[in-house]
Structures are given as C-alpha cells and as structure tokens.
Specification:
Radius of gyration: 17 Å
Structural class: alpha/beta
Bound molecules: 3-methyl-2-oxobutanoic acid
Order of helices and strands: HEHEHHEHEHEHHEHEEHH
CATH superfamily: Phosphoenolpyruvate-binding domains
Number of strands: 8
CATH topology: TIM Barrel
Number of helices: 11
C-alpha cells in the first residue's frame, strides 16, 4: 500500500521485438488483464510479460453484463492507472465498442490511448473487415493486436458467448481473417474461445505472436481476465479458466503460479480446451 511503483528500480521494458523473439524461441508469453496501479505493479513484478487493460473492465469493475457500455474515457482513465504500475511488461489497451468504426476515428482514439494512457499497443476486435483500419493504424505507427474468435463487443449480434470457428467453413474463414490482418500490419493476434486444433493451425501459419484465451495450449501465449483467475468474478467460472487462488497463499503467489504454468505448458490443461 505504501510502495510507490515509480520508485522501484528501473527494469528493462519488454518490446514487440522481445515478444517476437519469445515466439521464435518457442517460449510462452504470460499475459493478464489489469485495471489499476496496484495490481499492475503486482503483475509486473510477478513476471507477467504483457498486461492488457481490457474492456472487460465493463464487467469486472463496472458491473455491466457486457463490454458494450465501456467508453473511451473509461479506457483512458484505467490505462493511466495501470501505466503507473508497470516497469517491464508490454502494455496493451483495448479500443472500446464503436471507437474504431472508421480509420480516422480509430487513429484519433488510438492516439488518446497511447498519448494519454501510455499504451504501447491497442487491441481491437477484428475480422477481415477491419484490415483497412489495421493497415491505417500500422501506417501511422500504431502497433495493433487483432482479437479474433469470440468478440465480446459483438455479443448482441452473436446471441451469446459461444466457441467460434467450429466447422470447416468457419475455421477456414478465421484462418483467412488472421492472415489478412497480419498482412495489414497486426503485430499480435489474439484468439478467444477457439477450438484447440484451429488455434494451433493459425499459430503455425502466422508469423507474429498468437495469444489465446480458451484457445488451447498450442498458441504462443495465454491471457486471462485477472479477476477470473483470482476467483473474484461472481458467477459460474468459464471452462477455460483455472482458479489459481486455490492453494495459493496470496494473490501474488497465484499470479506467480499462473506465470509458471503458462511457461511450463501445464496451463491450459485438456479440461480447459475446446474441440
Ligand atoms: O477485455 C478483455 O479483458 C479481453 C481479454 C479477455 C482478452 O479482451
């Protein structure tokens, strides 16, 4: 409570190049969400490689049923808090619902997240249709993570939170989208709720790091919502989430155990995966 994150010793900041090297070396990238400075500092010093201010803050911080109500001002506010806690971890911030519906709007909002919020990269929920936007951001020097598979901002179109990419046509479409977005300049692909075999194929065919959530073990890294893996989120725990607080002496120990489990490949286990 009394530690000033700014006063900790300077640690080398992870870059996109460092994450790409981890993929090339077959290492696993451990990622988590954070929404405030104290948890950000805990994650950073526990060895988390990438911290995301997810628009999941709409659910776990604001108590909404979906991420749709989250605004740009919300994202900027939480990014500023998280940035103060980070020294080493690569820092990614979500673009909220309808904040990237045209290339110009996407660039103006990405600029806010980077200049006011300190983001090193923005994440948007994509499909092949977002290639023009990703390309425009890329041309303007904005690193982009493209989020494929289940895209929670589309929940009202999808009719619920369901596994995506099942069946040959849907799987092929997701692979094509991933390749298109990579070609447009996406620097990281994130796959949410995707069958294990499809996620493995996309990871093999994509050169940039692929981070999974509910996408099985054969991707380059894992991400979870912090409050889910610490068993704070009320309600039913999704199948792909392990409760890392079980048997842990503290939240720090739980996060360290997550980092170790991602690195040694023991998380996700078969019970966390989808066919
Ligand atoms: O908003 C979020 O926290 C996310 C993760 C679930 C990847 O997008």
């Amino acid at each position: 409570m009394y530690t000033q994150p700014e006063n900790r010793n300077q640690t080398e900041k992870l870059t996109l190049t460092a994450l790409a090297k981890m993929k090339a070396a077959g290492g696993k990238i451990a990622c988590l969400t954070a929404y405030d400075a104290s948890f950000a500092a805990l994650l950073d010093t526990a060895g988390v490689d990438l911290v995301l201010v997810g628009d999941s803050l709409g659910n776990v911080i604001q108590g909404h049923a979906t991420t749709v109500p989250v605004t740009m001002d919300d994202m900027v506010y939480h990014s500023r808090l998280v940035q103060r806690g980070l020294q080493r971890a690569f820092f990614v911030v979500d673009m909220p619902f309808l904040s990237y519906s045209t290339p110009e709007l996407a660039l103006a909002n990405a600029a806010r997240l980077m200049q006011e919020g300190g983001a090193q990269m923005v994440k948007l929920e994509g499909s092949g249709h977002q290639a023009e936007i990703v390309s425009y951001l890329n041309q303007n020097g904005v690193p982009v993570c493209a989020h494929l598979g289940l895209r929670p901002q589309n929940v009202h179109k999808l009719g619920g939170f369901k596994v995506q990419g099942r069946g040959e046509a849907a799987g092929r479409q997701m692979l094509e989208d991933a390749l298109l977005l990579e070609q447009a300049g996406a620097d990281i692909i994130l796959l949410e709720l995707v069958p294990q075999a499809l996620a493995a194929e996309i990871t093999r065919k994509i050169k940039v790091p692929v981070i999974g959530i509910g996408a099985g073990p054969d991707v380059d890294g894992q991400i979870l919502v912090l409050y889910d893996m610490l068993d704070i989120t009320p309600g039913r725990r999704p199948k792909f989430v392990r409760n890392f607080m079980a048997g842990a002496a503290s939240p720090r120990a739980a996060v360290e155990s997550y980092v170790n489990a991602v690195r040694d490949g023991s998380y996700p286990a078969p019970e966390h995966c989808f066919d």
